[in-house]
Amino acid sequence: MTPAEQAVSAIVARDGLTLTPEDQARLVTLYEELQSELSVLHSTEFAATEEPAVIYAARA
Amino acid sequence: MASALRQKRVSSVALTRAALERANQTQDTIAAFMCFTEDSAIAAAECADQERAQGIDKGPLHGVPIGIKDILATHDAPTTANSLALDPAWGQRQDATSVRKLREAGAVIIGKLVLHEFAIGWPDPATGMRFARNPWDLTRLPGGSSSGTGAAVAAGLVPAGLGTDTGGSIRGPAAASGISGLKPTFGRVSKEGCVPLSYSLDHIGPMARTMRDCALLLQAIAGYDPLDPCTVDEPVPDFSSSLNGSLQGVRIGVPREYFFDQPELDSELRAAVEAALQLMAQHGATVKDVSLPHARLSRTVQRVIMFGEAYAFHQTNLARQAHRYGQHTRRQLLQGALYSAGDYVQAQRIRSVLKREALAAMADLDVLIMPTSVAVATVFEGYDPDTTRRAPTFMAMWNVTGQPAASICCGFSSQGLPMGMQIVGKPFDESTVLRVGDAYQQLTDWHTRTPEVAREVQTA
After folding, report:
1. What whole-number distance in Å separates Cα of residue B356 and Cα of residue B292?
2. pLDDT reported for residue B459
3. Any CB–CB contact under 8 A between A21 and chain B?
4. Cβ neighbours of A26 (radius 10 Å)
5. Residues of A whose CB is below 8 A from B339
6. Residue from the list B318, B343, B346 with its beta carbon closest to the beta carbon of A17
7. pLDDT recorded at residue A60
């Protein structure tokens, strides 16, 4: 198994999904494709001070 | 239509019956409606006529037939999100807040409009569910996911309707169908009663032929709602009063980087937006280039947040009955499993950056203008999900920042297909977006053009 196939198999098992072979194959392809896209999100440019834009108001 | 009702030149019952008849006639071609609520529509129209006879005037929507995207709960019809996989309990709910407000404003809801499954999937005919066609070319889709609303308004089946927008699902169909659509500021309109796609990106907004009509619908549905913690207790202005038809002194920013330099951007579409900018400058607007340094990241940020939140909503259902989803929807939603919690939080951090940069860029501007999409309406046959996934988007950025953004028609391609221009405002300044769009529509006639199929329906 390739690293991508291993990763997707682990995710599918974790979430209790039962996928068709076609759906699983597409996820593997997508997983590989997404890695470079996601790495940009984790670049050091954004690693320092930025707070996430999540809304949580600690009031009633 | 509103003035005809006010002057009693036509009754709401007559308008409603005509709208129902027209819509029914086109169900085999345009297929804009999931279902009709004929009984309650006629009852509401009769009530509107009686009220008018008694001198009661609820405003410009009083007695006007409209449609609702079938992702919003209504008490008088099932809510399906155009999916076999949605919990049928959604059909037992009371009206969504936005629907309730429209009814209180006197609007007559004639039916639930088609959408892409769960507001995300590309139509899969194998599910047997309906999908709408573009009135300008029936081999094409009217955009998505508010496809039925776009098609119904473009074809003249209803003058207006509600859509929802998580990454462009109001503005995309508005552009592809040649009509106007407004995604309000996040928090301006309650999401209560809407089947969620992405909790922090979903918006509900109006779609109509003109920005002026969008203003009327927004007026009815805007405002704080204790049932939706995302709504903001912000004063709701009189949106129509800002529509003075003038561009004098309006300061327009043009973010050329990313929004104008993508190789996928159709050259006719780019030229149409440039021509619109030139026209607006000739009529008193100032136009200058601005920079949004990280706009290129907006697509990834929006997708990580949207698919992460969507997967949270659908995960249990996907594990239990994945086969009940259309294949494209299922595969889209499964993407959410591939993102980590770290990816999601990082996307939310960059969301802060994008929001700050957009507000800084607009500090001395009123609106930003750019193309709505990279191309005209897509042909249904031969859909390639991979191409779609990789394509740039000019709309997702404004779901990420939450700013109001509208799409209006700015021309037609050499194939006769409508092209859309996006107008983006500052948070809670829908008034200026509407004013600029309306003023442009006073100068042009793109929004008055109707497809052949609409004229055939009117004639019949």
Report:
1. 10
2. 59
3. no
4. 20
5. 34, 38
6. B318
7. 53
Give the strand order in the sheet containing B251-254: B33-36, B108-113, B65-69, B160-165, B203-208, B180-183, B405-412, B418-424, B367-371, B251-254, B286-289
Backbone torsions φ then ψ of B401, nearest 5 degrees: -85, -20
pLDDT at B458: 63
Which region, left, alpha or beta, applies to residue B186 given φ > 0 means left and ψ of -120 to 50 means alpha? beta
- Residue with structure tokens 């074809």? B155
Cβ count within 10 A of residue B92: 11
Q: pLDDT value at position B151?
A: 98
Cα separation, A22 vs A28, whole angstroms:
10
> How far, in Å, CA of B351 to CA of B401, rounded?
7
Question: Does residue B205 or residue A50 have the better pLDDT?
Answer: B205
B246 part of the active site: no
Residue A17 contacts residue B337 (beta carbons within 8 Å): yes
* DSSP strand pairing (B33-36 vs B108-113): antiparallel
Amino acid identity for residue B235 in this structure: P
Handedness of CA B323, B326, B330, B333 (dihedral sign): negative
Q: Is B73 helix (H, G, I), strand (E, B) or coil?
A: coil
In chain B (460 residues long), the average pLDDT of successive 10-residue segments reads 88 98 96 98 98 96 98 96 94 94 98 97 87 97 96 97 98 98 98 97 98 98 96 96 97 98 97 98 98 96 98 97 95 97 95 96 98 95 82 97 98 98 98 98 97 75
List, in sequence order, every residue forming a beta bridge with B189; answer none if it has no partner: B222
From chain B residues 318-347, the ones with a CB under 8 A of any chain A CB are 318-319, 322, 330-331, 334-335, 337-339, 342-343, 345-347
How far does A1 lie from chain B, in Å, by closest CA? 17
- Asked if B296 has any chain A CB less than 8 Å from its own CB, the reply is no
Catalytic (active site) residue B190: no
Identify whether the C-beta of residue B189 lies closer than 8 Å to the C-beta of residue B204.
Answer: yes
What does pTM read for this prediction?
0.97
**Residues B398, B433 contacting (CB under 8 angstroms):** no
CA distance B41 to A52: 45
Per-residue pLDDT, B121: 80
* CB–CB contacts below 8 A, A to B: 76
**Continuous segment of H or E residues that includes residue B251:** strand B251-254
* Chain A hits for B337, Cβ within 8 Å: 11-12, 15, 17, 27
Give the end-to-end CA distance of chain B in Å, rounded to a whole number: 20
- Cα separation, B27 vs B29, in Å, equals 6
B18 touches chain A (CB under 8 A): no
| Min distance A11 CA to chain B CA atoms (Å) | 7
Side-chain half-sphere exposure of B341, counting CA atoms within 13 A: 0
Residues of A in Cβ contact (< 8 Å) with B230: 55
Q: How far is CA B309 from CA A45, B58, B120, B351, in A?
A: 25, 38, 13, 15
Our answer to whether residue B146 is catalytic in this structure is no
